[in-house]
Every structure is written in structure tokens, then in C-alpha cells.
Amino acid sequence: MIDPEKLEYQTGFGNEHETEALPGALPVGRFNPQRTPYGLYTEQFSSTAFTAPRHQNRRTWFYRIRPSVVQGHYKPVDTGLVRTAPHGESPPLPDLMRWEALPDSEQPTDFIDGMITMAVNGDALSQTGCGVHLYQADRDMTDRFYCNTDGECLIVPQSGDLMLYTECGLLSIKPGEIAVIPRGIKFSVKLTDGKARGYICENYGAPLTLPERGPVGANGYANDRDFQYPVAWFEDREGDFELVSKFAGRLYQTTLGHSPLDVVAWVGTSAPYKYDLSRFNVINTVSYDHPDPSIFTVLTSQSDTPGVANLDFVIFPPRWMVAEDTFRPPWYHRNIMSEFMGLIHGIYDAKEQGFVPGGASMHNCMSPHGPEAGVFEKATQANLQPERYRDTMAFMFESRHPFTPTRFALDTPARQNDYIDCWQGLSKHFNGKNDG
Q: Which of 48, 124, 149, 380 is deepest in the core (most CB within 10 A)?
């Protein structure tokens, strides 16, 4: 296992990065493709259309030992508990749902076999919406690789460190960090701690990018410089290898006679990256009320409607709360966006009971939600002083499309069927007097 502490990275979100694992492997300027350095093959990888505007265009040139086309025929394999939109197992539901953390698998499992889909929305074939999966693993993907052609993968570890071996190089991520693997990139996952679990958001839509800052200005939120990209790393191995590809909602398997991680050099704008969530620069109120939770957006996948995201990745990190004369928890609300939440560690301030690390909740569009009864009573009676929220890291996958739960999510014993009861203790305070 490679020491994660010794990995080097390139920085800058969406920049055109260039890197080589052997000196001179990356051609510079005009060169003759008949005579590539080291006898490498040239292969272009595009995760947007060729004609996408320059500032949105994502493509990378690979210089590799063998082109990707050197592979066998695909054959369909069991999709297990992985589902893709639309799955047809159930309709979207207005019910509020919440789940405990799933129990450990009874069988040894790697990252691929340990994926379980909880909800999907949109339509993968029309490139809209997303899928939400949980993963757990207790063994490495040995000589096994994964390629998702349906969407890019946003990986959110909840426990256990991961080493991601990708065509572009190596990324090490741990709880409190995230990684994004572009649609179509091949990768393998090995475990640093022997066991891991977490969340995956499979984005079918436009690639994730940084949200606009608006009046906030040039700094704040997630800063470009804090995103880290791998440096070129390759292996020249021959043998029996397996590539599992997710294509149009199905899993397919093919065999390779060599490792697909044979990219010796690359240059471009489409590559895996990681981000440390503790580097998010929280912007919040210092007066009397709090703004919309959109201030916590780390990444966004834009839709064809300005300001209405196909997918937002939002976090609720450690932060100071200083507003006076206010109700500090999230207010009760109904809105057009649908929310799937998870908890990495600690306590989420709107749900102090029942929302646990590794668990999840789902609130579809226009379904009312907000603080549980106990949180409301505590917040309305509190003597407000500056308070530091320290032990917390919750997140939300938010989408314009309603989430459709899978049959597994509806039927699993981990579902809290009494979740709705946490609001039943909200009592009537109306007394006909204006004493606010």
C-alpha cells in the first residue's frame, strides 16, 4: 500500500493540469503523433461535448501504454442492489423518510459489491438527475476496476480511509474529505483501515462545478486553490484483470490482459479531484437572522434553468452561530428542491435525536419539514450567546427532481417508520395576543 501521507497533488479547480510520471512523456507544443515519447498511445478523454464553451469544456489527453480499446467483449452481470433512474420499483413519495446506519455486510465485500442504492431521480439516459448510494467495504478491489458511464461519482466517506487508484493517478480520502470521479474514468478502491463506509452521489447531469459567489465577491465558500488533483502515476502490469462498467443502468463485465491504469502522462481539464471540507470558508449572518442554506453549497451541477440546480452538494460544517433575536435552527419550510441528507459525524442541529452518523433522511419537494419538537422548544427558550458548533458535519444532496426511493430503502429494517412522530409533540402556542 502506498503511504497516503507521501502523495503529491496539483491544485486549482478546473484548471488545465499537466503531469508526467516519466520525464519527457508529456509532449509540449507541436509534435509528431507518429513518434510519441516512450512509444505511448495518444487518447483523448472528453467528459463534455467537443463544442462545449471553452470555460465549460472538460477534456484530457492521455499518453498511455495501451489504448483503452484493448479489451474483451462485455457481458451483463447481476446489478445487486444498484439501481438507476428511472427504476420503476416505486413512485416518488411525499412521505418524510429517515434511516439508521445500515448494519455491516455479512459477506466480505469490496467497493463495487458494497454499493446499495437508496434513491434516484431524473433519467440517466437523458442526463438529468442523480442517484444516491451507500457503500461499505472490507476488502480491496484486487485486479478489479470500475467505470461509471452513467454519471460522475461524488464519494463522501463516513468512516474509513480510501485510496483511489485512477487513470490519472492516486487520491487518498478520509472522512471529512470528498472525491469526484468524472464520468467514464476507470478506477479501483483500496482500504487504508481495513473497513470503510460512506455515501455516493451519482450525478447524471452537467459536471459539478463551483457555485457563483454573487455579492460575496472574490473569496469565500469553496476556494479554487483548495481542490487537489492527482499527479501522473502508472502501472505496467499484465495478467487477468476485470473491468466492471455501469452503462445505461446495468452492470457489465469485461476482461483485460493488462491494468488499465497505464497512463504515463496527461494534460487537460477532466480528471478526478479531492477536497477537504474543513477548508470550506463559511459565510453566515452576524446580525439578526440567518440566510438560506444555499450559503453552504460546495459544488453544483447546473440545469437548463438558471438558479435551479440539477444537483447541489451542501454541507453543514463546524461554525460559529452569533445571530441575536432569531430562531437559530433551520426554520420550518416547504420548497421546490428535494433533499437527501447524510451525517458524517456529530449531531445535526435540527435533528438532535435519531439522525445518526452513517444514516440518512429524505425530504421531497413541497413536503414540510424542519426542527423536531424538542429542538423547537430548546431553541425558543435559549438565552442566545455566541455558540461554536464543533462536533458536526452533515451534508445534503439537493436536486430539482423528486427522489424515488428504491424497494430496498422502503423495506429495510433500518428505515425509521416512526420518523414522522418527531414532530407530533409540537404544541399549539397561539393565544390571541401579540406578545412576540
A: 124
Instruction: Report the C-alpha gap between 426 and 360 in whole angstroms.
Output: 23
435 and 125 Cβ atoms separated by less than 8 Å: no
Cα–Cα distance, 134 to 344 (Å, whole number): 12
Maximum distance among all alpha carbons in the chain? Answer: 85
Strands 144-148 and 115-123: unpaired
What whole-number distance in Å separates Cα of residue 290 and Cα of residue 297?
15
Q: Is the peptide bond before 86 cis (omega within 30 degrees of 0)?
A: yes
Which grid coordinates belong to 313? Answer: 452538494
Q: How far apart are CA 332 and CA 190, in angstroms?
A: 42
The pLDDT value recorded for residue 434 is 79
Distance between CA atoms of residues 242 and 256, nearest Å? 6
Q: What are the start-end ranges of the H helices in 108-230?
A: none
pLDDT of residue 32: 62
Interval 40-63 mean pLDDT: 94
CB proximity list for 29: less than 8 A, separation 6 or greater: none
Which letter does DSSP use for residue 294 in this model?
G
Query: Other CB atoms closer than 10 Å to residue 29's CB: what's the count?
Result: 4
Range in 39-43, 123-127, 383-387 the model is least confident about = 383-387
- Give residue 128's Cα distance to chain centre: 16
> What are the backbone angles phi and psi of residue 14, rounded to the nearest 5°?
70, 5
Q: Give residue 315's pLDDT.
A: 98
Please say whether the structural domain 278-415 has been given the CATH code 3.40.718.10: no
Catalytically active residues, by annotation:
290
Q: Which residue ranges make up each domain of the chain?
A: 278-415
Task: Measure Cα distances from 38 to 34, 64, 65 in Å.
Answer: 12, 9, 9
